[in-house]
Amino acid sequence: MTRMVGMTKGAAAELSAELRGFKEVQRLAYACAEAVAAQLKPGVTEREAARMQRVWLRERGVRDWFHLPFAWFGDRTAFVNFRVPLQFFPTDRRLEPGMPFILDMAPVHKGCTADIGYSGSLGLNPVQDKLLADLEAHRELILREVRERRPLREIYEDVDRLMVRQGYANRHRAYPFGVIAHKVDRVKERAWSPHLFGFGTQSLKGLAGDALRGHRDGWSPLWSPYRFSDHPPRPGLWAVEPHLGFRGTGAKFEEILVVTDSRDPEQSAFWLDDDLPHVRRWAEDR
Amino acid sequence: MSLEGARERWVRTGGIELCVAELGDETQPTVVLVHGYPDSKEVWSEVAGRLSERFHVVLYDVRGHGRSTAPQPLRGGFTLEKLTDDFLAVADAVSPDRPVHLVGHDWGSVQSWEFVTVKRTEGRIASFTSMSGPSLDHFGHWIKRRVKRPTPRRVGQLLGQGAKSWYVYLLHTPVLPELAWRGPLGRRWPKILQRVEKVPADGYPTPSLPSDAAHGAWLYRDNVRARLSRPRTDAYAHAPVQLVTPLGDAFLSEKLYDELELWAPQLVRRTLPAKHWIPRTRPDQLASWITEFVIASEGGRPAPVASGPYADRFGGQLVLVTGAGSGIGRATAYAFAEAGARVVAVDRNAEGAARTAEMSRLIGAPDAWAETVDVSDEQAMEKLAEKVATEYGVVDVLVNNAGIGLSGSFFDTTAEDWRKVLDVNLWGVIHGCRLFGKQMAERGQGGHIVNTASAAAYQPSKALPAYSTSKAAVLMLSECLRAELAGQGIGVSAICPGFVHTNITSTARFAGVAAEEEKRRQKRAARLYRLRGYPPEKVADAVLRAVVRNQAVVPVTPEARGAHLMSRFAPRALRAIARLEPPL
């Protein structure tokens, strides 16, 4: 980690070692997404794509999950007619040429969690290309406003407004609690870690602990449009996932934003890694 | 009626002399237009003129019609085999080394189906546009399927088409049809056409009509019974087919084409709200569809990819939407774009309009343009109407959607507030209807106007006096205009959405309160509308449906429909609701 986080020296060194761990698992997850995306063919189902992610990561030592891998194809990328959370789980929808897809996974590796979202399409899909290009503005907006220490709810509303201006629907509103981001943390490695409705129990325990503590101190580990998110960004690692939907096509990215209590704006918030597929793609387009 | 600038030649085949006319540049792809019954090639004059700007257009009088000679004897001289000989002779004469694009109307289409499904013409036809004329073989199979396995619906279809085909039985009686055509019917036919079909009175049909119609009776007698009782089983099209179905056709039902995909694997469907004689009444639309299809078949541009509902109806049409920078207007523009329409997105917010146009192109609009205009500005609207007419053409569908919100009691509403709301909500619609509606009416080829009113148009409220008044005026304007334009094939619909989640709430004015309070109320209204969660896309679907079905007043959300019902059956209850304080 080249950036120094403004804390005491010891704490900073400890944090950067920790950040390295998170960065590694985030890279691993994106590598998995790219590897699986490269294998997608017409006729592959969402279940098969989700299993491919699971197998790939398990072969590389992943034993626990924040949540099991998801795969959404076609208009499911835009969460068309999503009402209950069960609809997030992979179905037997088959991939067709030109169809957009999103792979979303949250592996835990060596005690560190990543939560990533990877959007692509089988062959050309100009609409999704456009959506992906327009996500760049959201990544910039979120970072800028977090550095300004604006209340999370306000930033959420600004993201919303930008999406409306761009002519899109905000699809992360369909997520549980409508979250655009949630906190991630270290997860204790246990020999046996079952999952509940697709979410790892260890991670859920961490999130629940944060929620409990946050509730006492007036903050929340969920970044939502609701009152409980009406507080400035809390230091820690946030998995941020703006998700655009446009008439049956969806696109998102998801990656970790590091928030510290440094007074230096540059250091107070930064994206954990700038060398990710969607960021590289924007750089190439320029 | 003449084909201006046409080069004429005679083609001799099987003892017949066919009169062939050519227009346009001979090096361009050849489009052959085949006329129906009782017509002559001049029925195509409007379409041919438009096509000749890009293509080599060829028309010929079918044997026994117009200036072509008739076979001797007439009986047995009009079989589909002989008509195929004629077509091949013409095609060889006008385009010896390139396949031709075939377009047929009525009997011209019936014979063209034969041309495009028999072996000996393979490689001579590049594409076929069919209108109002099914293949007799397909028709034969259609009847057989319904007779063999009758269900109530199929029997209904059979009886319906059977009733529409009354003239076919009449034409099978000997001598009588000839006598009628050469006598009173022939004399009155032009007037009948004008009255029933609303075709323009400009010298068509030609004077040869009585003998054309008398000879043409043999088209039916020589083919119909034979083909319907023993239809060919190998009548598969060997070229791409574009099917244009006029929805108001008195002689053919749409159901005839239900299973056409089986016979024509490369099929593009188009529908048109018009009657039978579309070459006369809808030349602009036909010319643009034929052009698009010919170019696609030539490999110049890929075939249209429109995927949305009603693509058959709106593909290639020109649609103008005001207030297209956001909300219902934007969703409507997108829905038309998905149906393959060309879109003009008008908004006073340039960025929003540009965005709508850009996204429209991505999702299926062959073309889309953004225009920045304030609809309440008369001069700007006049300029826009002029620009649109010269650069993009006459609009087929006009959606007057732009509107602003204003809430507050009557006495809090200042004269300035009133002016603003009426300027945009009412005058904007008046300008749109006046300028673009006039172009539509002058062209005389139909069209549709959609005005976005509101459920507030019939639901009084003490919180929205100015807004409701402006919208009620729009509703009444739409209904009056609908009556006036009905005779010209132009429909007018008023859409009354109800509470829809758009940003009209966050830009709405609240009269009589301080700026801060206004902001608070905007936020609160926006929140309520979001909780209601009715998406503008559903209103857009209702707009398209209203155009397709030519509906007069369309309440959209359940509460809008409920209020509409109450306004008719329980107006007192509505008046009681009007007194309630809105939760803002």
From TrEMBL, chain B:
InterPro entries: AB_hydrolase_1 (IPR000073), AB_hydrolase_fold (IPR029058), KR_dom (IPR057326), NAD(P)-bd_dom_sf (IPR036291), Sc_DH/Rdtase_CS (IPR020904), SDR_fam (IPR002347)
Family: Belongs to the short-chain dehydrogenases/reductases (SDR) family.
Domain of life: Bacteria
Key words of the record: Oxidoreductase
SMART domains hit by this protein: PKS_KR
Molecular function GO labels: oxidoreductase activity
Organism for this UniProt entry: Streptomyces avermitilis
PANTHER family to which the protein is assigned, alphabetical: OXIDOREDUCTASE EPHD-RELATED, RETINOL DEHYDROGENASE-RELATED
Pfam families the UniProt entry points to: Abhydrolase_1, adh_short
Protein name per its UniProtKB record: Short chain dehydrogenase
Ranges of residues in domain Ketoreductase: 317-498
